[in-house]
Amino acid sequence: MTDTSKPGFYEDAGATGTFLDANEMVLNMGPQHPSTHGVLRVILKLDGEKVLGTECIIGYLHRGVEKIAENRTYTMFNPYVDRMDYVASVSNGLGYCLAIEKLLNVEAPPRACYIRVILTELNRIASHQLWLGTHALDIGAMTPLFYTFRDREEILKIFEKYCGARLTTHAFRIGGTQYETYEGFEQDVKKFCKFVAPKMDEYEELLTTNRIWLQRTKGVGLISAEDAIAMGVTGPVLRASGVKWDLRKAQPYSLYEKFDFEVPIGINGDTYDRYLVRVAEMRQSLRIVEQAVDSIPEGPIMAKVPKVIKPPVGEVYVSIEAPKGELGYFVVSDGSTQPYRVRVRPPSFVNLQALDKMVRGALVADVVAVIGTLDIVLGEVDR
Amino acid sequence: MAIAPLLRKMFMVDLMKGLNVTFRYQDPKEVYTEQYPLERPAIAERYRGLPRLNVNPDTGETLCIACNLCASACPEHLIVVGSQRNPVTKRKEMTTFTYDVSRCMFCGLCAEACSTDCLELSQDFEIAQYSRDDLVFDRERLERGSEPTVYTR
Amino acid sequence: MLDYITSYFRSTVTPGQANNQFWALVYILIVFGGVSMIVMIMNWAERKALAHMQVRLGPMRVGPHGLLQPIADALKLFTKEDIMPAEADKPIFWFAPVWVVVVAFTGFIVVPFGVAHAVTDMNIGLLFMLGVSSLGVLGIVMAGWASNSHFPLMGSLRSSAQMVSYEIAMGLAVVSAVLMTGFLGTGMYGIGEGTASGTLSMIGIVQAQQAQHVWFVFKFFPVGLVAFVIFAIAMVAETNRTPFDLPEAESELVAGFHTEYSGLRWSLFMLGEYAAMVAVSSIAITLWLGGWMRPFASIHGPSIAIPFFWEHPELGIVDLVSYLVPAGVLFLLAFFCFFNALRMPKHPAMRPQVIGLWALGVVMGGIGLVLLVPPVRDRIQDIFWFVAKIAVFLYLYIWYRATFPRYRFDQLMRVGWKVLLPVGLGVLLLTGLIGLSPELVTWIKGVMLWR
Amino acid sequence: MADETTPKDQPTPPQPEKPAETPAAKANAAAPTTEAKPAETPAAKADAATPPKPTAPPAAPAKPAAPAKPAGPTPQPWESEMITTLKRQYGSGIKETSTYVGQKYMVVDPTVVDEILQLLRDDEQFDYLVDCTAVHYPNREQQFDVLWILYSFPRNERIRVKTMIKEGDAVTSATPIWETANWLEREVFDMFGIKFEGHPDLKRILLPDGWKGHPLRKDYGILQQDTEWVKINLGIESGQ
User: Is B77 an 8 Å CB contact of chain A?
Assistant: First the structure.
């Protein structure tokens, strides 16, 4: 058999081969395509179904968030960050608030931190559930989507009750949280934890051992630990490659050091491992939520923050472990009420860069699987 | 190869497990759908929906003191408060109030800024209008408050 | 003329065999209408069952529980704008959906819904059926080519490769069943009772199962079962359904070969696809599941006689009960209609739906009553059992779709060529070996003695 | 690899909560780390090279930063073995090494920045380029800060490398050092117009190829582009 994966094979074939193997097809996948998760456009160079190369065209959803930030006060910009990674808006808000708190040199009181942890971890579950549903749908299994959305709905209901919005929550404020927990918050969260644990087993029953799922995901979209680090890939994608690195453990923020949880890692760095890592992460998040809701302290929910936020001149970079990876905010203050510069380090954007490496030589169906497994949100990629 | 995994594979146990899950869920009790216009969803008390200007229920006077805090808190600058100094009481009184819902992102900063609980984001979530102009709410519309849509067939 | 028409009632063969052109035409129309009806019901049932598996409700608005949804959809598709891409190969683009539908329905000529309920019976019926059903891929390839677009082209190429590879496995499984028609023994392991030349006639195959008192799925257990499983997998692949729905894989190829189709043309593809599903299910039922026979068809029980209603001295009480099942099922459906009509919301807006449901229940009950009339009952019960078996298959299709992810192209090929094909060959070999084992033993003995 | 990264060494220790209401209180509470040096007078601090100090904010509605105001935490010198080695090697190429609220950064000369980045990755195990970005200071002679945020998995340490360049100057691309720099640098180019030498494919990434200007520069108005684009492409007056 000819080794078509050898570099340069196709170039040679074009010169010496017959007309049959000299044909390459350029396929525009997106921006309107069912499984590019929004408006990603991937230009595929194909030989039959085999992918010879890809190019991502992004920016269709670019809203200039960083420019908006320069024209808003610190408080006003807070709701905008929810609109980047709109499936994990609570995490986005947390990162932004932590960055500005760092700049102001204040710290949220413990009760606020606990509420933040509960909501952020619930949001991580919600984000992973949405990922699982859409990823399974990309691979052709329709049903997990509905189960995960049903369970995610329960989380969104808690969000709605807590802060009044389901998706773009604007849950946290600089210095703490705006809202005290509502009556029955703890019971709702506990009920959810009890409700969702068996449901997670069901997702796994549908997929984990299913032979088609195994064939579609095992060995697909491989990325080694070295490559992953060089590509700056973070989050579950990095952990599935075997790097045990989670910012919640490595550099704890918002009192994460008080909670007992594990960082699941994969071995092979393929799509299946990423699936397992994310499912395990959902369970770990549940553990954190249960611990936090059991030990939530009393106290104020807002640190002493002036009404008009004017951080001293300086620049900070604060990053958190968002569901997609390291979400960082680099904020430069010039001492005025408006940030001089806000740079968002979006995990999806950086992770998406690894797509080309992961799908070269694979089939068209794998491109879809890999886009799914990277768990990108175009709102965050394009900002 | 061990015999048990081989047998499991031959008899497609993995596939049967999945089939079992989907089969079980056919029970009509598991249905999660809300039949929206027929069944109204339960909206949380804190829900941030369409804005409303509250009036004093006893006198019918507006609670707004035209302090302009909401307008200055709004990230989208979509609130315009017109005010006039009352020559009798020497107080500022709100005359006009426009709220451009079409640009609103329902962050709730205006309602948080309001010092008299006048401006409030209500639980009304049915926002659709036939034209963009209808989404620019004036004082009258804001004080009228929510108008839950009634569906008829 | 009237005599020509009524004379057919006395015959017990298909109109084709009876050489009755009129009834052949009627049967063609009935089959076409009936299959279209099944497709429409399937459309509703698929959406409903799929929805319930996915904790949804499915269509609820058009008619009670969305019962009229297929009609609403059909109307919508008829009135939709017909879009043809500017760069399309217009005649082929126009012809492809027509071809798919024509081919899908042509195969039904030989499908025996009952001992006398087929348009005709051919001595090469099975071959005809397989041949015609595999022509459907031509329409798909034409659609993909004529669309002049990347996604449809890839879809149609996938489809053609898939059809070619799965047809072989399918053929091997079918040959094994045909082989079984030649072994005359009765029961699961009935061997050594002589052989005859097998038959390719669809009716002949069912009659062979009748004569051998065994459905071929259980013959030479588990050989027949394995052959049936191979066919069951291959037939899902043949009809481009999950988990083998690569030609139209919506998450990869948008909609595959029918990406550029809309409105009526698109609905023709859907009609063709669902009709093909019914067609391959019919093949499976005919070959392995005893065709029109009821379960345990060889058990009759003590004989019983009811004047004017049951005068079959050769049949027993079990037969009587099974003959009443069709009417019973319809009564059950009618009961469901009434029950649900009572449970409908008492909103005045719901009144038309409630009335509709009552009316549907009345119609169902009426049909059930008609089915109790002895001549009708005797003639119709074959069809009932056949359709019931089709329904089971269609349910399986839905169930698979709700559960399984989609294979990748190379994996699909691997399953076809590396699993199904060798297993199919083995099954064929085993069928022959088991069926001819007495002769083989004799032959081996002879060889040994000659030594 | 960094399999067992434990939170043993925390580069960003939680700061003691301090009242930040009155400027007077802030002047005394300026010490974020234990080895704090005495707070300087506000005037002296204005002269000290506080890196992101714009002499005057651009034509934004913000009030100009009063020189006496920023009395919060101040940058502290950052001393470590690595810094000593680097300083020995590059001398004046390293202009400043400081920590600010516990975050370490160094300001280096643009001519040596690629060597330093290479060295940081190869010798000092900063194997992960977190982010590459820029900040625009239109009133400064060296208009742009270009930043690389680095993280080391083995050391669990995060640093920032900063360099200042003039308008039109190019920076050497970090793509050969970290592959991830590819898109990050393209974004910086897209948003600021800073050229990266040796970048394999330096073109716009988020904005369309025909876009005019670089939006995150301070002299780039939000409205001008919209007005022009709408007029040309839609043939109507912009509603903004």
Answer: no
Statement to judge: residues A104 and A173 lie in one domain: yes
- Cβ neighbours of residue B61 closer than 8 Å, sequence gap 6 or more: B55
**Residue A351: which residues within 8 A CB-CB, separation 6 or more?**
A233, A234, A235, A237, A324, A325, A374, A375, A376
Same domain, A133 and A37: no
Contact C243 A140 (CB under 8 A): yes
A99 pLDDT above the threshold of 60: yes
A212: nearest CB among C55, C56, C407? C407
Residue C4: Cβ-neighbour burial (10 angstroms; 0-12, 13-18, 19+) = exposed
Query: Cβ D3–A315 below 8 Å, yes or no?
Result: no
Q: Is A358 part of a structural domain of the chain?
A: no
Q: Which of A58, A106, A317 to mutate to test the interface with D (most CBs of D within 10 A)?
A: A317
Q: Chains with 3 or more CB pairs closer than 8 angstroms to B?
A: A, C
**A23 and A138 belong to one structural domain:** no
Q: Say which of A146, A216, A366 has its CB closest to residue C55.
A: A146
Residue A295 lies in a domain: yes
Answer yes or no: is pLDDT of D56 > 70. no
C400 touches chain A (CB under 8 A): no
Task: Collect all residues with Cβ–Cβ distance below 8 Å to A117 and sequence separation of at least 6.
Answer: A254, A255, A256, A259, A288, A289, A292
Note the pLDDT tens digit of each residue in C415-435: 888 888 999 999 999 888 888
Last residue of a domain, one of A22, A39, A57: A57
Q: Which run of H or E residues covers position D121?
A: helix D113-122
Looking at the structure, tell me whether residues A270 and A332 fall in a common domain: yes
- With contact defined as 3+ CB pairs under 8 Å, the chains touching C are A, B
Q: Which residues of A touch B22 (CB under 8 A)?
A: 143, 206
Q: Are A237 and A305 in the same domain?
A: yes
Please give the angle made by the CA atoms of C417, C418 and C419, to the nearest 5 degrees. 100
**In this complex, do B75 and A80 lie within 8 Å of one another by their Cβ atoms?**
yes
> Is A109 inside a domain boundary?
yes
User: What is the per-residue pLDDT for A22?
Assistant: 53
A–C interface: beta-carbon pairs under 8 A: 82
Distance from CA of A231 to the nearest CA of C (A): 26
CB contact under 8 A, B26 and C49: yes
Q: What is the pLDDT of residue C432?
A: 84
| Residue A25 shares a structural domain with residue A166 | no
**Contact (CB<8Å) A210/C50:** no
**Any B CB within 8 A of C57 CB:** yes
Q: Is there a contact between D133 and A316 if contact means CB atoms under 8 Å apart?
A: no
A134 in the same domain as A156: yes
Among A78, A150, A206, beta carbon nearest to B18: A206
Which of B15, B18, B26 is nearest residue C52 as measured by Cβ atoms? B26
User: CATH code at A248?
Assistant: 1.10.645.10
* Whole-angstrom distance, CA of residue B81 vs CA of residue B94: 7
For residues A230 and D177, give the distance between their C-alpha atoms in angstroms, rounded to a whole number: 8
Which residue reads 């009420």 in tokens?
A337
Summarize pLDDT for C246-285 with one digit per residue, the tens: 877 777 788 888 888 888 888 888 888 898 889 889 989 9
Range(s) of the domain holding residue A235: 65-347+364-382
ipTM over 0.90: no
Q: Per the domain annotation, does A353 fall within a domain?
A: no
Alpha helix segments (H runs only) across chain A: 9-16, 65-70, 74-81, 89-104, 110-138, 143-163, 185-207, 211-217, 225-230, 236-240, 247-250, 271-294, 347-352, 355-359, 364-374, 378-382
Q: What is the mean pLDDT of chain A?
A: 85
CA D91 to chain CA centroid, Å, is 21
C-beta neighbour count of B45 within 10 angstroms: 10
Tell me whether strands D195-197 and D170-172 are parallel, antiparallel or unpaired.
parallel
Is residue A53 located within the same domain as residue A72?
Answer: no
Q: Is the alpha carbon torsion for D32, D36, D40, D45 positive or negative?
A: negative
